[in-house]
From TrEMBL:
Identification of the protein by name: Ig-like domain-containing protein
Leader sequence segment: 1-26
Segments of skewed composition (Low complexity): 397-422
InterPro entries given in the database record: Big_10, LD-transpeptidase, LD_TPept_cat_dom, Transpep_catalytic_dom
Swiss-Prot/TrEMBL keywords: Acyltransferase, Cell shape, Cell wall biogenesis/degradation, Peptidoglycan synthesis, Signal, Transferase
NAD keyword on record: no
Domain of life, source organism: Bacteria
Matching SUPFAM superfamilies: L,D-transpeptidase catalytic domain-like
Pathway(s) the chain acts in: Cell wall biogenesis; peptidoglycan biosynthesis
Spans annotated as Disordered: 80-99, 396-422
Domain annotation L,D-TPase catalytic: ranges: 241-361
């Protein structure tokens, strides 16, 4: 990558006293002996504090410097082996590239350099805790490595059970996304904490490389649970494809780079099992699969289908339905899916990608948040309200200027009322 943007996040707070030691070193001032004062060395605080024990394996080397900048960080284990780490964009911490090992001792040596060359170095040694016996929260990253995704692909992390509101900031700090070329985005949580999404204000640019890390292994989550695993993946964004389905016309419009390439008749959900209206994302593609709805309301059938593309967790797909071809374009007869002809379904499978946007409008029910990857089903202004951390200023919507007291429709000032002496 020519350039990588690290998601700006705050450092994980580690329950340990900060290290503040004497014995800093400073470059000798050229003016010493001539009455000139030596430059003051920078003030440096490092966490975990020296000799801290029971540190989580998700720990980071926290740094706080005043009057300078961090110029060197070296982290080694108890065998002297270097531990690779990367700085957070705000400089608040160095994050190991993998979880630390349980019941091991680590040493961090951090150097800060002041504006005039004086340096301060701090060294801290800490010991990690044993593998936690607390129950784990299961996490799933719905972003697989070495794939090509559509331009609406959100990075999605799911949790079971959901993350409580008071713990979401700590979890979000351990979710990292890098894009090349840079295209900043933000995280947003579902109300129940079962999923968190990452996307940019606009769709990904074709050709963008996205690298994701969910560094959750051993992370304390609330008082009673810990994170289960470390997830990493790097993939690429492919061509821009989107589908628009209009219940009024019973037609699907296929667009590539915003231009129509085909219209396909569809049959949507009948009144007793309506399709959802909203902005969805293709989640899975199957050349052949089995729908088994036994035990579900309005279900009870088992049927094999070809060329099926999932849109919701609730079971709405676009798929081949040769049995309804006479209704497609005219009448809704499905159980909520978008039925298309066998020929059209086969063609679509060669055109679409997981992560392509599918917009359905005009049906009886709205798409419910979390029923699929619903990150695009709200405006950007509404989406960023779901972040558990402050959203960078460049991604926040611009404040709306108050209207001029005399403004009229169209934004032009209205003439001020005249003052008459009569």
């Amino acid at each position: 990558m020519t350039s990588r943007r690290r998601l700006t996040l705050l450092a994980v707070t580690i329950a340990a006293a900060p290290l503040i030691l004497g014995g800093c070193t400073a470059d000798r001032d050229a003016g010493a002996g001539s009455g000139k004062a030596r430059p003051a060395p920078p003030e440096l605080i490092v966490t975990p504090g020296d000799k801290t024990r029971e540190v989580p394996v998700s720990a980071e080397v926290g740094t706080s410097v005043k009057g300078g900048r961090i110029t060197a960080v070296r982290l080694t284990d108890d065998k002297g082996t270097p531990v690779k780490a990367e700085p957070r964009e705000d400089g608040s911490a160095w994050v190991p590239n993998a979880p630390l090992q349980p019941k091991r001792t680590y040493t961090a040596e951090v150097t800060a350099t002041g504006d005039h060359g004086a340096t301060t170095t701090r060294t801290t040694t800490f010991t990690t805790m044993a593998k936690s016996s607390k129950p784990e929260i299961t996490s799933t990253l719905y972003f697989v490595g070495n794939r090509t995704y559509g331009t609406a692909m959100p990075v999605t992390v799911a949790f079971d059970p959901g993350i409580p509101k008071e713990a979401r900031a700590d979890v979000q700090r351990r979710l990292f996304v890098k894009t090349s070329p840079p295209q900043p985005g933000a995280w947003s949580w579902l109300d129940d904490g079962s999923q968190v999404y990452y996307r940019a204000p606009d769709f990904w640019k074709p050709g963008t490389t996205i690298s994701v890390r969910a560094g959750l292994q051993g992370l304390p989550i609330g008082k009673d649970r810990v994170g289960d695993a470390e997830h990493k993946a790097t993939s690429t964004i492919g061509k821009q494809v989107s589908l628009e389905i209009d219940n009024a016309t019973k037609q699907m419009t296929v667009l590539r780079d915003g231009k129509q390439v085909r219209r396909i008749p569809v049959s949507l959900g009948k009144s007793s099992t309506p399709s959802s209206s909203g902005k969805m994302v293709i989640m899975e593609k199957h050349e052949r699969t089995t729908f088994d709805t036994r035990g579900e309301p309005n279900g009870g059938y088992v049927v094999d289908v070809d060329d099926a593309q999932r849109l919701t967790w609730g079971g709405e797909f676009i798929h081949s339905a040769p049995w309804s071809e006479g209704d497609q374009g005219y009448t809704n007869v499905s159980h909520g899916c978008a039925n298309v002809s066998a020929t059209a379904a086969d063609w679509l499978m060669g055109v679409t990608q997981v992560g392509d946007l599918v917009t359905v409008k005009g049906t009886e029910v709205p798409l419910q948040a979390g029923n699929g990857w619903t990150a695009w089903n709200v405006s950007w202004d509404e989406y960023i309200k779901g972040s558990a951390l402050p959203v960078p200023s460049g991604l926040r919507p611009a404040p709306v200027a108050p209207a001029h007291p005399g403004a009229v429709a169209g934004g032009s000032p209205a003439p001020a009322p005249s003052v008459s002496g009569r």
